[in-house]
Amino acid sequence: MAKELTTRQENYSQWYNDLVTKADLAENSAVRGCMVIKPYGYAIWEFMHDALDRMFKQTGHVNAYFPLFIPKSFLSKEASHVEGFAKECAVVTHSRLMSNPNGNGVIVDPESKLEEELIVRPTSETIIWDTYRNWIKSYRDLPILVNQWANVVRWEMRTRLFLRTAEFLWQEGHTAHATKEEALTEARKMLEVYAEFAEKHMALPVIKGIKSANERFAGAVETFCIEAMMQDGKALQAGTSHFLGQNFAKAFDVKFLNKENKLDYVWATSWGVSTRLMGALIMAHSDDNGLVLPPKVAPIEVVIVPIYKTDDQRQAVINYCVEMKERLEKKGLRVKFDDRDTQKPGFKFAEWEMKGVPVRLAAGPRDVENKTVELARRDTMEKMEISENGMEEKITALLEEIQENIYQKALKYRKDNTVRVDTWDDFKKNIENGKFVYAHWDGTTETELKIKEETKATLRCIPLDDDLEDGIDVYSGKPSKRRVIFAKAY
Amino acid sequence: MAKELTTRQENYSQWYNDLVTKADLAENSAVRGCMVIKPYGYAIWEFMHDALDRMFKQTGHVNAYFPLFIPKSFLSKEASHVEGFAKECAVVTHSRLMSNPNGNGVIVDPESKLEEELIVRPTSETIIWDTYRNWIKSYRDLPILVNQWANVVRWEMRTRLFLRTAEFLWQEGHTAHATKEEALTEARKMLEVYAEFAEKHMALPVIKGIKSANERFAGAVETFCIEAMMQDGKALQAGTSHFLGQNFAKAFDVKFLNKENKLDYVWATSWGVSTRLMGALIMAHSDDNGLVLPPKVAPIEVVIVPIYKTDDQRQAVINYCVEMKERLEKKGLRVKFDDRDTQKPGFKFAEWEMKGVPVRLAAGPRDVENKTVELARRDTMEKMEISENGMEEKITALLEEIQENIYQKALKYRKDNTVRVDTWDDFKKNIENGKFVYAHWDGTTETELKIKEETKATLRCIPLDDDLEDGIDVYSGKPSKRRVIFAKAY
Questions:
Q1: Domain count of chain B?
Q2: Under DSSP, is residue B60 helix (H, G, I), strand (E, B) or coil?
Q3: Do residue A233 and residue A273 come from a single domain?
Q4: What are the strands of the beta sheet with B383-387, ordered from one edge?
Q5: Mean of the pLDDT values across residues B163-189?
Q6: What is the pLDDT, as a whole number, of residue A250?
Q7: Under a CB-based contact definition with an 8 Å cutoff, are residues A407 and A463 in contact?
Q8: Count of CB atoms situated within 10 Å of the CB of A70
Q9: Considering only CB atoms, which chain B residues are within 8 Å of A138?
């Protein structure tokens, strides 16, 4: 097999890079840190996009579109916001090129210098709250429940396909509310939407939690997050939902007349997930043969490969396969019939395994005769022979089973790699071994940073679903009210 | 009515600006030339996006995503391409901001200057063909049929919402082929897709044609286009499809082994439509009461307004309306029940007229009693009383009739405002009067530019569906083989 991957055990990081390339998901471009999302990778993203978009609309949100550029002065209006983003900004300074007077090519026309520099949006709170000022006069104009699908740019120095790229695709919800309670409810609601999407569509178990002050979004009062475990035990933040308080309303002077006819600042949330989720999807489920896709986000759910040797056999097998394809499509399944005659079946098997197609069917002359078909499931690599009679129902049910199995497998993996520790030695050992560590923390940024310095573990979140429990900080020995999760992270 | 528009007759241009604002479609942002597409405007764009995306996929195309940035040196690789875009480029020169050492705010960190400037894509031929070089080795890798949905930036000096903005949303198809014939067929096929979309979905009659050399896309061998007439008689280019020959393959050294095992340059097309179509949609159909939407792109097809005076009446009327809403939604219609109690029915009527909802239903206590409902169609402003019995079928059929009527109205308008002229005096008079003028042209750029200089009319296209006809150029008196279309244009 030409497309062999580095194994996970050999080199997890290289395995990921190999897989992204060999499954035709994405590649690096000529522009530093920017990726090309290839058609197969983009098709998966489209399924994620469409499912999320439906969920946003079902929860009352509408889409809109705001400018790519943010005036430099806007960024500095919210103090912690600019601090968070200033060091990774793509800055537009000129608006024209001209022929190089010294010869070939073009140079930037110095006369086209902009009066004020523009930043390519790293996130859109500032330009959106500048716009909302004109949309909001009274409580009757609230809530505003807007989402935007867009590209954003953060000038990262060390990039990895999907996980950390200078440009990425995402959605950013920006909502405006009359009361603090309503905004908090919205932020929590969207966290639930993200968790449901991750678990039901991506088959990705997530932990819902609150970020520590140190890990909070630049400009937020509270950041909620979902955290997932990858197969190397590292955490990946899969989505965040921020309660922004009145920070941006104050920075952009967005006031409204409340029901008591008094002027007040508007309350805000923002929330986003990005093409980073593609990285999570790949790393959570895939194996040494390639991608493993949950059926709900698989561009192809079933691939059919014909097997024949002679021309005589060919037509009968192809007819048989085409008929199966049509029957499955009638049931609403996404089916690919791989009838290329330039490749052998073995090559095709390996290719579709690499691309993570959940179910593969293969049929040869004997299958035509016996009215059977060979079925291979990608998640377990099991093969079985099934009768073509009633195969639509069998395969439909199997796809649901596969979806659930992939989820359960990831959940078991996380459980097996999660520990509660109460001593600093245990803490260090388990972090070193790639575990999610539930440990007591004294609540200070100081301790959090020292732990990070000594172990490279970050405080992933304060889990929302856990009970309070008195204890002692594993590092500082100071009192603690609850356990939090530490892990190494992407 | 508070939301009154400037009439078309009074000031067509102001009418358009008023309408875009008052129908809540878009507004100018704080960033020069960049617009905010508001939720209602964006919802219409989503219908256009989804319909086009389906059509692209049905014709074998897949989506992908390429970087926002283009290295400056890439732009200059295709000579006419850079000439076409150099004067309107947003140029990224730095990657960091820093605190202003002199006081408040932030400044661009001079140490973060990029080695090579990046251009925010005005179109993506260059970055895509740089990528295709690695994708294409042999004829087996062809064709590549890729589309991208993206934002692009062209630093326009004079901007208008939707029609001409510095940033706009669009799709750009970029295909690669083994032969000239196949590429030409593709370019023509996508022109047909655009024409079908415009006519069937947007109810916008279009003329398919070829651009003159002077109006050709920068880097194309041939540019096909669809041209539509607006209600002031001006033309609007609603989509273009380019046959690029081997220009970009040569500029980016993209060769392939053909079936004869010889190296050859790859043949290319590109094709695009943008949020400019929103401008066309608005200007082609709307009237002095506001937007008129063809049902197929209407976010709301039917709006229901309850009418009552007393609290006693209220509940019965609301129940009656809700039931109608549910029945219509069961038929797959997009229905809004406007149950706001903060606004009177007259206000609501005007608002939904402004927003172009194709069908309005209004029901009061007498309707509840008589099992009737008042129906108003937006395109003709006719009102009628219909029985609630069987109203789903009536309204479904009516929506189709409205779609067709809007198309026929626009088609009639174009026919009524199209003339064939054979003298220069007639030419000037008719251009002045806002007509599409079919005239003989000698085929030279020189004549084309002189005509433009004297009349402001541009050569819209050489129509594809017309017969050849010998004649004499209306301006130069030189011989001509066919008529072409001149008009003033957006």
A1: 3
A2: coil
A3: yes
A4: B335-337, B302-306, B359-363, B372-377, B383-387
A5: 98
A6: 97
A7: no
A8: 27
A9: none
In this structure, the answer to whether residues A274 and A322 fall within a common structural domain is no
Query: How far apart are alpha carbons A439 and A480 in whole angstroms?
Result: 10
User: Which domain covers residue B378, as residue numbers?
Assistant: 300-396
Mark whether A426 and A386 lie in a shared domain: no
A165-185 pLDDT, tens per residue? 999 999 999 999 999 999 999
Does some domain include residue B21? yes
Check A127 against B63: CB less than 8 A apart.
no
Give me the helices (H) in B232-286, please. Answer: 247-251, 276-285
3-state secondary structure of B338: coil
Q: Provide the pLDDT confidence category of residue A80 given band limits of 50, 70 and 90.
A: confident
What CATH number did the domain enclosing A14 receive?
3.30.930.10
What residues of chain B lie within 8 A of the CB of A30, using their CB? 67, 71, 74, 127, 130-131
Q: Quick: pLDDT tens for B407-461.
A: 999 999 999 999 999 999 999 999 999 999 999 999 999 999 999 999 999 999 9
Could you tell me if B383 and B254 lie in one domain?
A: no
DSSP state of B7: P
Q: How far is B221 from chain A (nearest CA, A)?
A: 22
Which of A396, A430, A458 terminates a domain? The answer is A396
pLDDT of B323 reads 97
Q: What pLDDT, on the 0 to 100 scale, is given for residue B102?
A: 84
The pLDDT value given to residue A3: 61
- Integer Cα distance of B48 and B70 in angstroms: 28
Q: What is the pLDDT of residue B1?
A: 44
Express each pLDDT in A121-142 by its tens digit.
999 999 999 999 999 999 999 9
> Is it the case that residue A1 has pLDDT exceeding 80?
no
* 3 state SS of B331: coil
* ipTM for the whole predicted complex goes beyond 0.90: yes
- Asked if the structure places residue B116 within a domain, the reply is no
Does one domain contain both A173 and A56? yes
Mean pLDDT of B28-49: 97
Query: Of the candidates B69, B72, B82, which has its C-beta nearest A34's C-beta?
Result: B69
Minimal C-alpha gap between A300 and chain B (Å): 13
